[in-house]
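Sanity check

After download, print the first record. It should look like this:
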Amino acid sequence: MLRGFAFFKQHFFESDGSPRYYYDQKFPVDIQCAAQAIDTLTFFSDLDPEALPLAQRVAAWTIAQMQDADGHFYYRDLGWTKVKTPMLHWGQGTMFKALSHLLNRLGSAVEEKQREPESPSSTLQQKGRLTYVLVTPARNEEAYLENTIRSVIAQTKRPEKWIIVSDGSTDRTEEIIQRYARQEPWIALLRMPEHRDRQFAAKAHCFNAAYELLKDDSFDVIGNLDADISFGADYFEFLLEKFSGLPLLGVAGTPYVEDSNRPQAHTYAHRFTQLEHVSGACQLFRRDCFEAVGGYKPIKGGGIDWIAVTMARSKGWQTRTFLERTCFHHRKLGTGTDNPWLVRLRYGQKAYAMGGHPLFECLRGIFQMRQSPFVLGGASFLAGYIWSAIKRAERPISDELMNFHRTEQILRLRKTFRFLQRENGQRKYR
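Expected structure tokens:
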């Protein structure tokens, strides 16, 4: 039976979670294929740790590709067109049975996680006494670093250890770290070799070097904290409470604010925001999640924070930005290396490198035209994306992760369009 299931799992699914009709041919895809796949994978979830995350990917693909705006599931995808007839048996009854089976199993997984009392770490988590460590890569941060250090020292729940990594700093950064390390024994300095330029890949190298020093320690959560932010005294206690209450939460954070006079003006302050993304200014990982994604991947062009969070979701973990708290970003995002006028262009290039869906990214660029700098910002984003596509710029991510990302983007678009349809319908009856 297990040999048969291994063949089923290996041959009947695309990397984005879409089921195949035949073992060597994808189309046509009947809704029955998806329903049966979700049901079977859920049944095998106790025997195979990969089964439940795969069932979730199949469900996400099906909802994004085979569900109509009114809620019914299509009958068949022929590849070149879709038969959208709402068949009662396979299309609706069996599909909703499979989804309810998956939801019940996910709920049971949460309960099982909550009932694990034996190991010391799980006992700590159940009682809400999670422990955490921090890592801060820093390069020439003398202007902002003390704000960050004072914020951490003032926390109601301090970290077990905090390694601040000097990435070849040539200013007073190391002097500042050493001064506070003499006062607080849980703060430590780690020096990296000096280099001339500021690179995104260096952040990953710094973090991974610090993790090598921490991996034998006992802790539940590890945080990646930028050296130019500050926050309130209960910031980390608040986030640890979220980890305690949500056993499947893998990555958590909050919005960052760049204008102290406008604390509500952040990138999550609009109705179409993606709360599943966690900004890189401060990312907290459950240790099991961080090890499952393999840590940060050193990529010269950037995107290491996004890749880690997206990989966590692709492996079945929950990721979330919580709006009840914010942190203050003292250096405006993207100005560490580039002229501010080039930031949006770089974002467009990064969107292509991270495998963003062309439709989603074009709409994203148009949406950004409403923000300052008006029109020019969104146009620069689109220019960066389109130019990267024309020259076929290298993508540093796997096809599997790109397909997962694109499936999520299309699902977001579908939800947005449904919301707008409902909103327009409500206006008609006012």
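If your output differs, re-run the checksum step. Summary of this record's structure: Residues 161 and 186 are 5 Å apart (CA to CA).
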